[in-house]
Every structure is written in structure tokens, then in C-alpha cells.
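Issue 218. Parser rejects a valid record. Input:
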Amino acid sequence: MNFLDIAEQIASESKGLDFGALDSLESKTQQWLQKRRGRFTASEFHRLMGYRSKAEFPKGAETYAMEKAVEALTTESDHFTSAAMQHGNAYEVEAVEYFMEITGIEVEKYGNEQEFIELGDDVGCTPDGRIGYKGGYEGKAPNSKTHLFYLTNVKNAADLEKHCSNYFWQVMGSMYVTGADFWYWVSYDPRFKKPEHRMHILKIERDEAAIEDLKRRLRQGIKYRNDKIKELDAFT
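Output the parser choked on:
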């Protein structure tokens, strides 16, 4: 759950609201949004990675880079939260705690303790959680049909890239930004009757070849964004 979603959830409560805590959280939200503006972030790295094996910059990546240029040139962004996103946000902290309970692995910096991690001036990520200095956690709380698909079809990193390229590149990108060696990708749905079906856990190891491909596309994206900004400056 990101800081914006947390702030929206708290703002919706009608009773027992700690306004001092809300003010502090809203301040964190604004700081988080400001740090992200104009940067390429792990949750959207997949938009750069169409036709991974080809050298040219895909059209979809151009669109993403253009959006980053717009963010760098403006002061506000529109944010949309769907019903599915709200469901996922509501269960993300519960998922982390369930993960720790069944694995015995300690996760830090989750929930409202999440941090945006910067890599230089152009790239960053907000991990769902950190596991020591060399690991991380990315959790999803999808609808039950999607969770069943993950349980039965996504068994390893190759399956994740094939069926969920957005999450594959989010995980690889997070490892690139943080320098981590491994990342847990988790799907959680407490509505399943059997406890063993409620959580699907993959440990994804750092893939240097994939990260090199990502770095190449990031260089292209940064150049495209910067060129668009320079084009505008040329007219002023």
C-alpha cells in the first residue's frame, strides 16, 4: 500500500480520527508523490520492456517516457483507485503479517513505514517490505479467480515473466534499485477455505541479464524524457 492509499483510507474514517497523525501522514504522502514525479519507478518498469530482445525503443515505452516528461514539467497528477485496488490495499498489511507468521521471515518497512528509495535522479521504487539488506517483499491481494491462476500457473520467475510481466519487472527493478539479491513475490487471498491455498509465495533471485536489459531501456527512457523537455525549452 502506498502513502496516498493510506491517507485516503484514514480520511474515510468518520470517528476516532487522530488529526495530528493524519496531518503527518498527509505530509508523508506529499513527500512520496513529490519524490516520484518525473522518475521511472519499479511498478511501471514493465512499460519500458515490451519486445525485450529488440534494441529499438517500443512505442509503449515512448508513451511512458512522455508521461515522465509531463510530470517533470507540471506540479500535479491525477490518481485513480479502482475497487480492486482498494481491496488489495486493505489486505496488504494483513498479507505481510501472515507471510511472517507462516515463514518465520522478518519483514521491515511495510505498511505506513514504506519508503521510497531513490537511485540517482531518475529512478526509484517503493518496496512493500524489506528483508534485511539483501532481500525484499512484494505482496498482491487479488480477486480469488486471479489468485487461483497464480496458484496453478505461476511457479517460478519464468512463469512470472510470461504471465505477469508487470510484476516480474517490478521485482527485478526493485532488486536493481536496492541492490538486493532476492525478492519474495506473494499473492494472498484469505477467502480460500484451506490455509495452504491462501498464500502463494515465490522467491525470485536476482537475474543480471534481465537487469541489464532493464538498465538499457531505462537509459533510453531517460534520454527520451530529457529530449522532450529540451524540445520544450527550445521554444521558450
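Fixed in the parser; the record now loads. DSSP finds eight helices and seven strands in the chain.
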